[in-house]
């Protein structure tokens, strides 16, 4: 027939046997970098191998420190200013910022202002810029930036993500513990803001006079649903504040240890004298599978629509009509469409 699509328009170019690996004891995360070009990954070949990786498992946060190239285009003044802000904030006990810290601020230790605040901070920055290599070795330069994100774990009714690894004509799938989108974290800006606010609080505390006691009447207002959202947000921030970082050792993808973990954990291995792996059998038939992947039926008018009858239900209706003894008109024959249930090894 002219214009009919040819079978060669969509040929099968490859076939793979699919395997699902055993669940491993280690946690397997997929880290995505939406702000980084795919041709410039963070690895040793690009001189951007991550320096440190850490995780808050209860709160569900992951952070990675990546080195910054201190080239001729690097702004040394800003690098020193932000690096010094981070160092001073950490000296005061503020080791993390933002959502990972629960947006919390550490209390200001007494007497710390006299020991850490310089009489000429801008002059100190200029002197450190003049001795930039020395300041960098002393940890006073912002020479690494942090990427981080929240772990998206498996949820009921949501898709299950798996990691695929190819070996010859085999595809091995491993279940992911979670997915994280790693985006820039502006901890250096938070540190500078924290120091500015802490200096103002110190000055206010030193200049404050003894306040006279006065009565205070407390009142509580109810906002129904808003209270539920506020309570869940407070619980979320409390977990982030109380959870501590677990520091991990990062292995580059070209490192031997990384390849060993890849080859041992992401493939299903068969024992030399052991039985064959069990076959994967679908728990759904063709109709159930189509129903599961189809979009929900929504009526714009808001009326509830009846679910279409299945072939089995339609056959039951036909049988009941035949049992009444009434002769049914013959229906025109329909073209038979071949169907096949595929069992994947």
From TrEMBL:
Coiled-coil-forming residues are none
Q: Which GO terms describe its cellular component?
A: RNA polymerase III complex
User: Segment Disordered: which positions?
Assistant: 293-345
- Gene Ontology process terms (BP): tRNA transcription by RNA polymerase III
Recorded superkingdom: Eukaryota
* Compositional bias per record (Basic and acidic residues), positions renumbered to this chain: 310-330
A Pfam family annotated for this chain is RPC5
Q: Which PANTHER family match?
A: DNA-DIRECTED RNA POLYMERASE III SUBUNIT RPC5 (PTHR12069:SF0), DNA-DIRECTED RNA POLYMERASES III 80 KDA POLYPEPTIDE RNA POLYMERASE III SUBUNIT 5 (PTHR12069)
What protein is this chain from? Answer: DNA-directed RNA polymerase III subunit Rpc5
Q: Please tell me the species this chain comes from.
A: Pseudovirgaria hyperparasitica
Taxonomically, what lineage is the organism?
Eukaryota, Fungi, Dikarya, Ascomycota, Pezizomycotina
């Amino acid at each position: 027939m002219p214009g009919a699509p040819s079978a060669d328009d969509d040929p099968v170019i490859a076939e793979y046997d699919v395997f699902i690996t055993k669940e491993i004891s280690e946690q397997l995360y997929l880290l995505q970098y939406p702000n980084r070009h795919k041709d410039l990954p963070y690895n040793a070949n690009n001189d951007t191998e991550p320096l440190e990786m850490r995780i808050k498992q209860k709160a569900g946060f992951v952070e990675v420190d990546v080195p910054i190239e201190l080239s001729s285009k690097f702004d040394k003044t800003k690098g020193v200013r932000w690096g010094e802000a981070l160092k001073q904030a950490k000296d005061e006990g503020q080791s993390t910022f933002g959502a990972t810290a629960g947006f919390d601020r550490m209390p200001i230790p007494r007497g710390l202002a006299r020991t850490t605040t310089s009489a000429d901070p801008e002059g100190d920055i200029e002197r450190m810029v003049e001795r930039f290599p020395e300041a960098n070795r002393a940890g006073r330069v912002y020479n690494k930036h942090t990427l981080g994100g929240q772990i998206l774990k498996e949820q009921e009714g949501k898709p299950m993500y798996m990691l695929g690894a190819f070996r010859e004509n085999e595809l091995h799938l491993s279940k992911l513990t979670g997915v994280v989108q790693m985006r820039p974290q502006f901890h250096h800006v938070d540190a500078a803001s924290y120091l500015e606010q802490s200096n103002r609080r110190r000055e206010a505390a030193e200049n404050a006079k003894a306040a006279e006691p006065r009565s205070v009447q407390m009142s509580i207002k109810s906002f129904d649903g808003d209270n539920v959202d506020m309570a869940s947000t407070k619980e979320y921030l409390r977990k982030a504040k109380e959870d501590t970082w677990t520091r991990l050792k990062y292995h580059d993808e070209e490192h031997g240890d990384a390849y060993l973990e890849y080859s041992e954990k992401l493939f299903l291995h068969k024992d030399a004298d052991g039985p064959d792996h069990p076959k994967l059998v679908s728990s759904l038939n063709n109709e159930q599978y189509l129903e599961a992947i189809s979009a929900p039926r929504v009526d714009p008018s808001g009326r509830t629509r009846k679910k279409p009858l299945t072939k089995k239900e339609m056959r039951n209706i036909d049988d009941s009509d035949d049992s009444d003894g009434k002769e049914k008109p013959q229906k025109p024959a329909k073209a038979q469409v071949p169907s096949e249930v595929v069992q994947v090894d």
